């Protein structure tokens, strides 16, 4: 009997935590394995099989909401291969280790408080060992390269224009002579952005799994971002304050540097020609180095021409970096007005929270948001007028100017999303709309049905479909989360937990041995029995 199905696990009627599970025959794979960021709306279905039985993971791009649970997958027994573009592999190498550091740091901070209060200690979601372990399983690929993963499974990455190395993934699944083509859009990029290329269009698929972050609205007519930034900087510096920009270390930080270089070279801020810009993020510094290495593979024509003419598009006089904690702290002792670019972009973690603590209460400073803010994050609260926030146990009054620079988005808007899906030459059997707030995903699915003419719907986590017939074969939970709980998935860090994971992995390996030569099977059985004899007490 031919078996082929897809099950939706994460970022379904929500914006973050992308994860999709596909099974055919005896093969199991995931597309993305992301961490939820911000508020949870629905209870997410866990991976329906033992992680040790997952053969492959295909990663659309390095953002943590698409890759951030890979170390946890490893912690739970996964030892398969992870395929991604070369730039995505390099970015994940720094981002997953950075994420593990944050997990460990925050757990230790909470545990110091817990020990003083006599409360139980917490376990980090995963640790550096898990991150280092899973990184050894990455396999780099190039754009447009057709890769046969195993019998019945072929993939190809194309440029999604969202982030350095970001991709849409074409996947051909064949079982017993039946082939279905799936296209996972990943996050589709905005158009005419600096440094990286525009998204590529695709033309055919049986099923499309498509993001919808901005599926119910269009970006404003793009301003001259460098000129708009110069206005905000002039206003802030005139008051004697700092311009603080929460920005993701990968992508948005490098775009900000591109615009700052333009402000310098084009004389757009003549009142303050020697202004200083601080990048306060070790991750951003490492990511910027990866940008420098990816010119030919990922940069657009304009950026490549700058490099070929000897101009570094993200380097300029007055640019300073803070790598160590001491260097970071010294930024706030410098009384001179300056630009501080720091992560995270939604103000949920990282050094940006220290800079907010030092600047939110100042009437002369400005906090400038240049990217999407997920509901439930501190960034979203600040943009929506919150008057007081709590940082490091201290209540801070919000007196700084809170500014949003619209249009600087890494995501395509409604019109560009529509153009992307409408480029398919014949209607896919189904278009699954994911990675959007619930109202946005539902509205965009309706738009695709009514205006593009394709069968589209917004699945819930746990919904599953037969890829041969297109019929729904399982219904996920519609249960709402009562309150946000960080780290629903937890690391199994105890010795007995690790032993249980090893046992589950052994069972998974044994099942894969069916059909091997009797001689090899007997040898394997003898080894297992010998091990059991040693430890059976």
Automatic annotation (TrEMBL):
SUPFAM superfamilies, alphabetized: Metallo-hydrolase/oxidoreductase (SSF56281)
Pfam families xrefs: Beta-Casp, Lactamase_B_6, RMMBL
Metallo-beta-lactamase domain location: 16-219
Record's keyword annotation contains Nuclease: yes
Listed GO MF terms: exonuclease activity; RNA endonuclease activity
CDD domains, per the entry: TTHA0252-CPSF-like_MBL-fold
This protein's UniProt keywords: Exonuclease, Hydrolase, Nuclease
Keyword Hydrolase included in the entry's annotation: yes
Record domain Beta-Casp: where: 253-382
UniProt xrefs under InterPro entries: Beta_Casp, MBL, Metallo-B-lactamas, RibonucZ/Hydroxyglut_hydro, RMMBL
Protein name: Putative exonuclease of the beta-lactamase fold involved in RNA processing
Source species of the chain: Roseburia faecis
């Amino acid at each position: 009997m031919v078996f082929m199905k897809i099950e939706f696990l994460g970022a379904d009627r929500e914006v973050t935590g992308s994860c999709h599970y596909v099974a055919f025959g005896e093969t199991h794979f995931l597309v993305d394995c992301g961490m939820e960021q911000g508020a949870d709306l629905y209870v997410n279905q866990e991976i329906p099989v033992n992680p040790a039985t997952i053969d492959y993971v295909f990663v659309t791009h390095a953002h943590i909401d698409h890759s951030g649970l890979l170390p946890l997958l490893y912690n739970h027994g996964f030892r398969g291969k992870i395929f991604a573009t070369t730039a995505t592999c390099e970015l994940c190498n720094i981002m997953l280790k950075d994420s593990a550091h944050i997990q460990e740091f925050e757990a230790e901070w909470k545990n110091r408080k817990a020990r003083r209060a006599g409360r139980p200690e917490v376990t980090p979601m995963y640790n550096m060992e898990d991150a280092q372990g899973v990184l050894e399983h990455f396999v780099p690929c190039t754009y447009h390269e057709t890769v046969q993963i195993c019998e019945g499974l072929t993939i190809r990455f194309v440029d999604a224009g969202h982030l350095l190395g970001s991709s849409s993934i074409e996947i051909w699944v064949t079982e017993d002579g039946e082939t279905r083509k799936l296209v996972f859009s990943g996050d589709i990029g905005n158009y005419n952005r600096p440094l990286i290329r525009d998204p590529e269009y695709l033309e055919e698929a049986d099923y499309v799994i498509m993001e919808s972050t901005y599926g119910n609205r269009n970006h404003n007519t793009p301003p001259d971002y460098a000129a708009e930034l110069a206005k905000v900087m002039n206003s802030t510096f005139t008051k004697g304050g700092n311009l603080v920009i929460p920005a993701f270390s990968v992508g948005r930080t490098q775009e900000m540097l591109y615009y700052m270089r333009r402000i310098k070279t084009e004389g757009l801020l003549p009142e303050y020609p020697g202004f200083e810009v601080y990048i306060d993020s070790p991750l951003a510094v490492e990511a910027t180095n990866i940008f420098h290495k990816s010119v030919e593979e990922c940069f657009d024509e304009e950026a490549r021409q700058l490099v070929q003419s000897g101009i570094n598009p993200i380097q300029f006089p007055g640019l300073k970096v803070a790598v160590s904690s001491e260097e970071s702290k010294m930024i706030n002792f410098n009384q001179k007005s300056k630009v501080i670019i720091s992560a995270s972009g939604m103000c949920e973690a990282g050094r940006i929270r220290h800079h907010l603590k030092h600047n939110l209460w100042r009437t002369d400073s400005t906090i400038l948001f240049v990217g999407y803010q997920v509901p439930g994050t501190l960034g979203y609260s600040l943009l929506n007028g919150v008057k007081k926030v709590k940082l490091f146990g201290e209540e801070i009054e919000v007196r700084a100017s809170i500014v949003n620079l619209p249009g600087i988005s890494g995501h395509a808007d409604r019109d560009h999303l529509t153009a992307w899906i409408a480029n398919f030459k014949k209607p896919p059997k189904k278009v699954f709309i994911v990675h959007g707030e619930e109202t946005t995903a539902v509205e965009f699915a309706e738009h695709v049905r009514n205006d593009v003419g394709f069968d589209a719907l917004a699945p819930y986590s746990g919904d599953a479909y037969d890829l041969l017939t297109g019929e729904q074969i399982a219904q996920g939970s519609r249960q709402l989360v009562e309150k946000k709980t960080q780290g629903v998935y937890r690391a199994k860090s105890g010795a007995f937990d690790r032993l249980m994971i090893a046992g589950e992995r052994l069972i998974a390996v044994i099942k894969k041995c069916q059909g091997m030569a009797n001689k090899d099977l007997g040898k394997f059985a003898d080894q297992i029995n010998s091990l059991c004899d040693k430890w059976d007490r």
